[in-house]
Amino acid sequence: MRELSLHILDVVENGITAGADIIRIQVEESRTADLLSITINDNGRGIPAEKLKKLQDPFVTSRTTRRVGLGLSLLAAAAERCDGKLTVAVGTGGGTEVRASFRYSHIDRAPMGDMASTLATLLMGNPHIDFVYTHRIGGHEFSLDTRDLKTELGDHALEDAMVIYRLGERVRTSLDQLRSNTDKPEAREKNHGKTDD
Amino acid sequence: MAKLTIDDLKKIKEETAKSTSIRDGDANIKITVHMGTCGIAAGAREVMNALMEEMAEADRQDIRIVASGCMGMCSSEPNVTIESKEAEPIVYQKMDANRMRQVFKRHVLLGEIQSDFALAKM
Hints:
The complex is a heterodimer of chains A (197) and B (122).
Chain A: H1 4-17, E1 22-30, E2 35-42, H2 49-54, H3 58-64, H4 66-81, E3 86-90, E4 96-103, H5 115-125, E5 130-137, E6 140-145, H6 146-153, H7 161-182, H8 185-196
Parallel strand pairs in A: 1-5
Antiparallel strand pairs in A: 1-2, 2-4, 3-4, 5-6
Helix pairs in contact in A: 1-4, 1-5, 3-4, 5-7
Chain B: H1 6-15, E1 29-34, H2 37-42, H3 44-58, E2 63-68, E3 80-84, E4 90-92, H4 97-110, E5 118-121
Parallel strand pairs in B: 1-2
Antiparallel strand pairs in B: 1-3, 3-4, 4-5
Helix pairs in contact in B: 3-4
């Protein structure tokens, strides 16, 4: 996949297929630690223990559970290419927790991409599922919880294409701001020394 | 910048005050965007975004959008299925944002099947 945000969309769709009704997405970008990590937690029916072991083997998974296996294998390959790794474990809520890490400065690391689009797509296609999204860049954080939105705007607000469209735009601006906060020249200067060695 | 604040939400709500009770009645048309790994890799997200913009513009209460998984025809992804009460479901293949806009404007709004992009009648 060209963007990490597409991998996120893919893994979240897996969780939805597994019957989850709440999905937590956490993205952390740290230049100082030279690490980018993505954690996706769902409360779906989970992956049986024996299959969980096989997930490490892309050939086995891509044959038995084709849809799940192919997506995770692609993400695993993307992470490993960047000195990172993929772990799939039983989630805190009983579902599945997928965690992918990447070396932030690795030349093969795909760009984060359009997270706002990914979120808007998820909201649009799955109005009955709640999403909790946290994105941290440097020390700054952006978060969005659809349960808050529903309490504030009414249960059906997020079924309106216009509302989701506007929401997507707002997420995009917020993330851009977050990124430009961290990209101040002095911050870049400071981080550069650390990531370069 | 920590969070999407209540003020932000209120603003969004005011901006879109006209319609908050969509999808209450029966949906006459169901648009399914297939979002398996194959679909996503082929560009289903952009298709969904174009569809969302068209929906926002059209302001129709009786159209429902659904995301679903792969239907096994990975080589023709992104696939979009349009079902309506009057006609049989049509699967469109190799969609992109522009094709989606055309299908929405012609097929969904006017009922003209775009056979150039169609993969199958179901």
